[in-house]
Amino acid sequence: MSDTGYGDFEFERRFWVRDLPVDLLDEAPATIVQSYYLANEGYALRVRVQTPGAPALDPALTPLEALEEYEDRFDFCAVTVKGPMNSGTRYEAERELDVAVGIQLVRRGGQRIAKSRHSVWLGDDGWVVDVFAGGNAPLVVAEVERGGPVTDLVVPSFCVTEVTDDPRFANDALARAPYGTWGDAYVAELERTGPRFLSGLGRTRRADED
């Protein structure tokens, strides 16, 4: 639970990445495999297992193959409940579980995703960059999270467009409909419509603006 006065509410903004600078990648990113036991209209129940750092995932690995590959490295597990996203704000309550139990829960049920999570500090914000594997490759999503509303944000130049409120990019949606099945259509859509960024959250500017 957050100690910022907002309780279990999380504040984040997420962006679709086309060309991620190699120098931002961790040599040993966190490896995450998670399973969604419920995902309906923005409400989700998730079990996640995670390593403290490991070689980056082979993007060809399925989530179950990644679970087997990294089973001995996982040192954290949690069950999380989420509410619908609303302009970067979402109810999210997380409780830790025994790792061995969590591995079996992920293995035995739900709809799964696997990703490598890189952490980087840019300007005044800490960012995480998720590089997805399996059916969601080659998707890359960058995310910034704060203890309150994410306003007046400087967006790194490698972030092409904002997907915070695009339900297709929620992890629970990606578990059901992997990016690999619709990514080409999304790129064509983006070329037609151009990038977009949330309004009403103070000034959002690109890091490469003068």
Overall description:
This protein has 210 residues and is an alpha+beta fold. It has 4 helices and 11 strands. The strands form 2 sheets. It has an 8-stranded antiparallel barrel with strand order 1-5-4-3-2-6-7-8. A two-stranded parallel ribbon has the order 9-11. Strand 7 (125-132) and strand 8 form a beta hairpin. The longest helix is centred in the C-terminal third of the chain and has 11 residues, at 183-193.
Work out the radius of gyration. Answer: 17 Å
Uncertain stretches of 5 or more adjacent residues: 1-5
Strand order of the largest sheet: 1-5-4-3-2-6-7-8
Strand content: 35-45%
Q: Would you list the SSEs in sequence order as H and E?
A: EEEHEEHEEEEEHHE
**Helix content class:** 10-25%
The major sheet is characterized as: 8 strands, antiparallel, barrel
What's the tally of helices?
A: 4
Please identify the oligomeric state: single chain
| Distance between the amino and carboxyl termini | 38 Å
Backbone structural class: alpha+beta
Q: Which shape, going by the Cα principal axes?
A: globular
